[in-house]
Amino acid sequence: MVNREIQTRVTFRTRSSEEAREILSPLHVEADVSTYIQSVTFLLKDERYDCLITALSRQGLSHNEYRNWVFEDRELAEAKLLHMIQSGYWGYPQPENDYKSESYDMSEACPICGKPAKQIKPYLVKGPPKFGRNDILALNWTYEFIVTDRLRTLIEDAELEGAEFWPLLNFKARTPLSGYMQLRVVHDLPPMSKSTLFKIVSLRGVKTPCSCGRLGLMLERVGEHGPVSLPRFDRGVLNHAKDFNLTHEWLSEGFDANQWKIVSPRVYRLFKAHNIKGVRFEPVVIEG
Fold first, then answer.
1. 42 with 24: CB under 8 angstroms?
2. Where are the domains of the chain?
3. For residue range 238-263, what is the model confidence (pLDDT) as tens digits?
4. Domain 6-69 has CATH 3.30.70
């Protein structure tokens, strides 16, 4: 096994934006005051990681961690499939206390975790989005990607399959926002390989897994010497994989669960060629 660096994303809830700033400012990290959930990524060897964990303990705040290996560009370029992971967020859907009823069909959703509610209407947001130099970011609470018109055009011109673009609506006017769209992945993959390592974690103080089995299921990421598992698929189930895909499994990250985005090398090459920021990649293991 290559002696890889380990990156960790620490997710925690704060009671106020002031508390978030108090914790993150000494680490030279800007708090996201648009949400009560903060997510910070460090290399495990970064001394700020230990400082953060100590600060959270001092404040009596619980946290969840998601660790992963740091891969070389060559390894990613040679991968047959990749897990595309959000590394930045913007905003959250409206109305804050009832956004699911506005955008989702909740008729078949689990009463505990709210999965697998199906999105049937565009998101309402406070816009326009502020992306800086990014062309893709994830919407807080939903893990859904928002992209610029530039990236949408690149994806459409490359004829990448498995996703579609939905408008974002201004919360007050209910009119489409100019310049940004939701990248909605619509193709599902079969279940992962039986050799994939999973574990059950406790989230939000509820019994996990919940009644539907989605909330609390996590890929076993960390062993005694670091991460031990990547997404794994049997080769035979991937004949109909698209460029953009969703995992069959709902996997917990932070304080929620979602279907992971699995993409083809064409997506990775497009993003790399055009220096698309706001996501990162890890290779998927294909067996058989």
1. no
2. 6-69, 74-226+233-288
3. 999 999 999 999 987 656 788 999 99
4. yes
